[in-house]
Amino acid sequence: MFRAEMWGLAALVAALALSGCSNKGRLAPVDDHSIGGVRAATRVMPGAENAGKPGYYTVKPGDTLIRIGMDNGQSGRDIARWNKLDNPNLIETGQVLRVAPPSQDLAAARPGASSVTAPAVMPAASAPAAPVALAAPSAAEDAISFQWPARGNLISGFDESKNKGLDIGGKVGDPVLAAADGRVVYVGAGLRGYGNLIILKHNNTYLTAYAHNQTLLVKEDQVIKRGQKIAEMGSSDADQVKLHFEIRRQGKPVDPAKYLSTN
User: Fold this and answer.
1) pTM for this one?
2) DSSP state, 203?
3) Do 158 and 246 lie in a common domain?
4) What is the pLDDT of residues 73-99, one digit of tens each?
């Protein structure tokens, strides 16, 4: 009996030793993400060769093309086109996207530009168009005059960390006006916290955003004049009827009160 117990104990120890050897160095299942047998940690993300270069952006968790466009002063649709995205709603964390137009798109990026452009000197076939970093705004672009987009009481002022624009009160259906000439680059409700949103691009420096609308009266790519009615005030994705208005200078929120004229 004693010998049998000893043999049983020896067998148990041997089994445990073999089990330990077989698990040695194995990753926990939660870390063992792989695609086609290749670990995700070694996967090269699309555009990785451009990471850190001027005019490119590395996608972060929770990003959408609309948000990336706003934060870089561009249209999400243009970013999708520049990066040849088959599905603009499918971008991956770590993916590197071009967020500045190729050189041949610079003229077309200006609001109201004609669809017919003068012929340009074509680069050599072996030299693709280089991305363009955001240049310093010209004096003409920086001198743009914005008007107030709605009549109503100021509910909340600009705070870079808490409120990236102005909140203007009013009644349901009050007119929302374009603050300056521009082109519509987004219409919809795809950006969390903004409700029914319109984004206008005024030049290569400035965007304006109009959020929480009840009714949207314009469509993407439409050319808009200063003072034109583009929406009706509402409370979509908000706790009260108001217009949330932002001015973005090269994608960075700035205090609209410093840019709005009194007339």
Assistant:
1) 0.70
2) S
3) yes
4) 998 989 999 999 988 889 999 999 999
